[in-house]
Amino acid sequence: MKYRCLSLGLAAASLTLAAEAGAVASAELYQNQTYTYGRFEARVRFAAGDGVISSFFLWKPGSEMPGTFWNELDFEKLGADCHLQTNPLYGLPVVDHSAPATLDADLCGEYHTYTFEWTPSYIAYLVDGVEVRRDGEETAAAFAENAATGMQIHFNIWPGDASFGGNFDAAILPVHQYVSWVQYSSFADGAFTPEWREEFDGSTLPNGWAVGTWASPKNLSTHQPANVTLSTGTATLSLTADDATGLVGAPPPDLAAGSDAAPDPTASAGDTPGAAGGGGASSAAGTGASGDDQPSATGGGASSSGPTAEAAGGGAIPYAAPSGLDAAPTASGESSSCSYVVSVRARPDAAVWLTLGAVTLFARRRRRDWLERGRRRPGGLG
């Protein structure tokens, strides 16, 4: 479990390129914005291949820093059999609470909808609307008390080894992870309220999204921006040879993409099909629905988010909404950096434009300074 400090989250916070990390190029896509309590959903087709870790996870920026309480929630595809593992990683030091989810579904050959429900009293994991795991008050408290500023949405793909992920062989490359859409609903007063939905229908990264440029958890690859591509309404994350980055051709269509409507704003916590008591399959091996009763793993899994304990770096650079656009509010009252609703307002005066220009110049200089100093941003444990 201690190896988790070199996992998926590692990929999420580092601005430095690690020393040569093998002849493999991996990928990470994430949002700069953080979100608090709510429902986090993504339509994903995970990458096939033994030793290939393919994930969707939530990560508290800075979790990897010494003396910081770690907060992370994972959906991770592992192994040649393409099985799913769920994991709430938290603690000081961080503790692994991973468990497999038994599903009758082809996770690497088809798209499926993966959902985190994060509330003050429970954290639930759902696949296609069916709850596969629920952690109760102990786990919820660890996130309520230590991730009050929220967590970021992340996706990544990278090579593992026999200790985590399987027996990776570069001969299987390239392999790809596909994301059809992502959406977020805030949570308050027992109900979820839709805030935004990103369908990746452009040819460039949407506002507020960024790509990783650091070494992957086990230092067997380096995340390359060229390995995140957008086309035909799909974001593709690729694992390739260093000299063959990017997806060639079109991503497979998500035939059911239009059938997943935004969450019901009147839905209350626990109303999801398969919720505790509703017949959903539990992912906890040999335990009941309450993940708080699961024993902690000691074998050395890898996390999906956050840099190594030795990494020096801060959280992601905050994203500011363009002038003239209103960001959808999150549960914490902050602005969403993903989707914007055009508002009718007066044209900003010269002072506003000058202020925005100064802020933009300052941010660019800060980013340049960080890159020159070789500081790194987290990217996930694994």
Mean pLDDT: 75
Helix count, per DSSP?
2
Tell me the distance between the termini: 10 Å
- Tally of strands: 21
Features:
single chain, 382 residues, mainly beta, Jelly Rolls, 17-stranded mixed beta sheet, two-stranded antiparallel sheet, 21 strands, disordered N terminus
Describe this structure as you would to a colleague.
It is a single chain. The protein has 382 residues and is mainly beta. The protein has a single domain, classed as Sandwich (Jelly Rolls). The chain is 9% helix and 35% strand. The protein has a 17-stranded mixed beta sheet that branches. The longest helix has 24 residues, at 350-373.
Summed up:
The chain is mainly β. 9% of the residues lie in helices and 35% in strands. The chain has a single domain, classed as Jelly Rolls (Sandwich), CATH 2.60.120.200.
Topology:
Elements (H helix, E strand, L loop, with lengths): L7 E6 L10 E8 L6 E8 L6 E8 L10 E9 L4 E9 L2 E2 L3 E3 L10 E7 L4 E5 L2 E6 L1 H10 L5 E8 L15 E14 L2 E8 L10 E3 L10 E2 L4 E4 L2 E8 L83 E5 L5 E8 L7 H24 L4 E4 L1
Parallel strand pairs: 2-16
Antiparallel strand pairs: 1-21, 2-12, 2-15, 2-18, 3-9, 3-13, 4-5, 4-12, 5-6, 6-7, 6-8, 9-10, 10-11, 13-14, 13-18, 17-18, 19-20
